[in-house]
Every structure is written in C-alpha cells, then in structure tokens.
Amino acid sequence: MKSDEKNTFKTKLIELCKAQHLKTIENLRSAMEECQQMANDYGPPKDRYDAFRSQMLRKRDLYAQQMQKANHELVLLTTLKPGELKDKVEFGAVVVCDKATYFVSISMGLVKCEGQDVLCISPAVPVYKALAGLKAGNTTHFNNNPISIQDVY
C-alpha cells in the first residue's frame, strides 16, 4: 500500500471511529436522561423500602460515569493525526499482521473500514503489550501463537 493510500485509509478509519464513538456518547446521554425522567415521574419514595427512585438515580450516575469516560476517549481520538505515518507500533498506529489488522487508539472492538476488518485496541490490552515498539517485519508471540507484523503506518 502506498503512503497516500495509507493516509486515506487511516483518515477514514479515524473518522469512522469518531462517528461510532459519538453514537455511543449519544446513546449514553439518552439512557441517562431516561433514568432521570423515570425517577422524576415516579416522585418521592412511597415508603422506606421503596428503592425504585434511588435505583434510577444510581443508574443515571453510572451512565454519567460511562459518558465521562467516553468523552475522554473521544478527546484521545481527536488527538490522532491521520497524516502522521508511524514506523513502529505505538498509539495511533495501524498495524497489519498476518492474522489481523489492529488500530492502536481506544478499545472499540471490530470496525469495518473499506471492507477491511480492523480491531481497535487501546494500549492497555495484552496484545498491544506484545506488539509495542515493534516494526514491520518483526515477529512476536502472544498466547503461544506467533504474530508476524507485515506493515505499520
């Protein structure tokens, strides 16, 4: 793959990740608002054993924490520079291996970009720790399985 094709692919991949992450944030916001509305509609607790309202407020707070984490991850995605091609496995690199293609960014799981399956992983996952700092042509082992790095950009 030529460098301009790599730039184009990486740009599309970053935009796709941002769009999917924005959907996640919006879903969390909706769930949070729904819990708040249910708690408001229910009114005050009916007796001392009535926990529905407090349960809804706890759920709202849980969604708020998840949304705060998702917003932080979105900031990380916006720091990525699509035109910056990497030569080793690090944050922001697309890593083409013999068995899978990884995008070191945030943990989003499998993303399909231009018909290609890409696993979006964070630097905290074990497979990244096995690949970190390696370059194209290097081989490593993860769970007793060899991983051959074909390209990094």
Brief account:
The chain contains three helices and six strands, in the order H-H-E-E-E-E-H-E-E.
Contiguous helical run count: 3
> Overall mean pLDDT score?
95
Number of domains: 2
Q: Stretches where pLDDT falls below 50 for ≥5 residues?
A: none
Strand % is: 15-25%
Listing every helix as H and every strand as E from the N terminus to the C terminus, the arrangement reads HHEEEEHEE
Distance between the termini: 10 Å
Q: What is Rg?
A: 20 Å
State the total count of DSSP E strands. Answer: 6
Q: Explain this structure to me?
A:
The chain is an alpha+beta fold and 153 residues long. The protein has 2 domains: 3-78; 94-152, no CATH class. Helices cover 48% and strands 20% of the residues. It has 3 helices and 6 strands, in the order ααββββαββ. It has a 6-stranded mixed β-sheet with strand order 3-4-2-1-6-5. Strand 1 (94-97) and strand 2 form a beta hairpin. The termini are close together. The model has no long low-confidence stretch (mean pLDDT 95).
